[in-house]
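User: Before I run my own analysis I want an independent prediction to cross-check against. Here's the chain; please return only the structure tokens and, at the end, one sentence I can use as a sanity check.
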Amino acid sequence: MAAGTSGTIAEEQATLRRVATLVAGAASPEAVFSAVAEEVGRLLGVDFTVLVRSDPGDMITVVGTWTSTGAPAPSPVGRRFELGGRNVSTLVLRTGRPARLDAYADVSGTIGTTGARDWGFRSSVGVPISVEGRPWGLIIVATTRDEPLPPGTEVRLAGFTELVATAIANAQARMELRGFAAEQAALRRVATLVARAAPPEEVFAAVATAVGRLLEVDFTVLSRYGSDGSGAVVGAWASSDPGRPRAVGSRFPPGGQNVHALVFRTGQPARIDDYADASGAAAVVAQEQRFHAAVGVPISVGGRSWGVISVASKRPEPLPADTEVRLAGFTELVGTAISNAEAQAALTASRARVVAAADTARRRIERDLHDGAQQRLVSLALRLRAVQAAGPAAASELAGQLDLLTDELARALEELRETAHGIHPAILADGGLRPALKALARRSAVQVSVEVGVDGRLPEPIEIAAYYVVSEALTNAVKHAQATVIDVQVLADAGELRVRVRDDGRGGANLASGSGLVGLTDRVEALGGRLVLHSPPGVGTTLHVALPLTTPGGPTRGSERAAG
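Assistant: Structure tokens:
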């Protein structure tokens, strides 16, 4: 049947109904494209049907084909061409109106010469496809015969373009809905991490993974800026190896024409659609990984530029136009996580400085008492005894009064020594944790067993904290828990000092009751440690404390002595 006479109105209506049924059944765009290409080709009696999508950068992509012979089309689905020259695709997309070529002798442009050379086109007609008022692409029918396509071909194609546009709009709406749901789920997962104050590196890894999978890119990279624009990678994900973010920890110098440098210079989102022309150290790495297109969005913390999150693709087409907007939601969460971590670090360091200052003050008071008041009292006692020895033997009443004064002075000196010892035990400063805890055990009113598995000295803030933890626990066990046996264990393991104090008392202790345990909790947490109390009524009390052997913001051993 000739192209000009094929197809009756009934056949055309039946064909449209079949395509409409496919569209109504929520078939995928690919299935609709294939069906439309075949139905149109058979209805119009042509040799080829081609559906083409318009892409950014004056590029087009073949999305559906059909041939009358059943053989594969010379340019399969997915092949891309550059617009330009004299051909139906360029004419339709430039004007937004139907176009035809009845002779291919003077055709030009890559798509035109491919149609003439590879497909053998002699006549073709193209009709634009618009989706929701925006140009989307076109449908082309062509023959290899010498006679041109009938004059009514453009009108008959128009009915199919409306169905194709409806299928595309429906599919886009479904994809947008699924994409929105997936994006919200990914944002919720990251927001949960941020809300529970997860470490920044955990948030970075989660964001990199979520963004990479959500946007279906090949790479995600989170980088922190140096003051000069240099970069340090803090989070990364790659579709080819998602479990091994090899780039984390790597650094690169500033400068060049690449997404990282563009975002740093402008403080705005940036994109590069072809990394072949990019430059700079970051671009070299990107080119080694075969980046083709990339988009970067700045990460701001407290109003200052902190870093950038970028995504990249190896595919030849640019990243979607909404990539920057979709990344923005994640950058806000990253910024919040960083702000939270910085605030927590500042608080911990501040608390550690307060605790260290208090320890320094106690040590200074103890030293002042020892070197000042204690020495004066000792000297006064010696002079009093000298006066007593030099007095006349007959002055018995005076001698008795001197004896009383000497005894009172001795008791005052002993009380002062005990007070100074309680402020800061000299044995802890001089001998370390083991002898200091042994001394605490000896002075206790109940039986105390002590195991100290520590070799050598520990950082001074750690020793002081452990000492006061044990001291407070012993005091509470004797005064409040009515314990008869107390077990103390102190071990250094895996970068932590672990302290456990267990008694057989009446239990029922509560961290919220009493200033002693509250103060201990503040001291332990200020050093980055943790305190856990287990004290069921009638069963006894166990206090667990873990202290990191590197202290945040705390002074090193001996620094207070040098400063004092």
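Sanity check: Residues 103 and 248 are 59 Å apart (CA to CA).
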